Amino acid sequence: MDAHGIDIQILSLSVPGIQADADAVTELQRCVEQLGFKGALINDHTRGRYLDDHAYEELWSALEELRVPLSLHPGSLPCDDWHVMRGRPEMYGASWSWQAETGGHAMRLICAGVFDRHPVATLILGHLGEFLPFPRSRIDSRYRSLRVDEPLQRMPSQYFGSNLLITTSGVLAPEAVQAAVLTIGADAVMFAVDYPYEVTADAVASIEKADLPSQVKEKVAPLNARRVLRI
Predict the structure, then answer these.
(1) What number of CA atoms fall less than 13 Å from residue 71's CA on the CB side?
(2) Is 31:40 a contact under the CB 8 Å cutoff?
(3) Which of 65, 87, 185, 193 has the fewest CB within 10 Å, making it most exposed?
């Protein structure tokens, strides 16, 4: 941290992690109010149940009331036999499948109207948004062509950058960071390393080398995180 000019780190437990179950609200309240936690992290689905399930409505309300974000992280064992990966183990995990699975979970939350019912709730996606930010125009154009039982209050992509924020963790290409900022806005992107899986120097360089104004870089690191996490 000292070598690369990082003053504060927000730490989280990844795999195997702690999943959301019946006592999730009580534990969230205890962690935030008594222990000073800045949010919560869940590794994708919990035994095949996604966060748009009615059982999690109270959890979303608690996140709003406590004014803390929920980080949706890859890592749960797949609950489906995804044929596209059959015989190709190199596609499983951080190389491809985790992004697709977690991005799909986030899209499910949007399409299910979670953020219409909980407009103050904040979801954080790592790895530059788990594939989601860049096809936003296509997501919207295809949504307009559909008939759904309960239409969203906004176009799907309009939840990006408001309810859905992203970090740069694990994606260390400056041009990708720049594209993400241009796509969903300078207020919606936060610097992260994905330590210890990635090299801190490379993560810092991805911000420094991005073709972005200095005031935008300052938002990405550190102002946005300070605002969202209240530090």
Answers:
(1) 26
(2) yes
(3) 87
In this structure, what token pair is assigned to residue 62?
Answer: 């608690």
Residue 169 has pLDDT above 70, yes or no: yes
The CA–CA distances, whole Å, from 98 to 63, 93, 117, 119 equal 24, 5, 27, 27
Q: What is the pLDDT of residue 17?
A: 66
pLDDT exceeds 70 at position 16 = no
Which amino acid type is present at position 221? A
Q: What angle do CA 100, 103, 109 make, to 5 degrees?
A: 140
Based on the residue annotation, tell me whether 211 is a catalytic residue of this protein: no
Which one from 116, 194, 202, 211 is the annotated catalytic residue? 194
Tokens linked to 205: 């360089």
Helices (H), 186-223: 200-208, 214-218
> Cα separations (Å) of 228 from 57, 103, 112, 209?
21, 21, 24, 24
Instruction: Kindly report, residue by residue over 21-78, the tens digit of the pLDDT.
Output: 788 999 999 999 999 999 999 998 988 899 999 999 999 999 999 999 999 999 877 8
- For Cα atoms 213, 69, 130, give the angle at the middle one, nearest 5 degrees: 65
Residue appearing with tokens 């806005």: 185
Residue 70: in which H helix or E strand, if any? strand 70-73
Q: What is the pTM of this model?
A: 0.95
83, 92 contact by CB (below 8 A): no
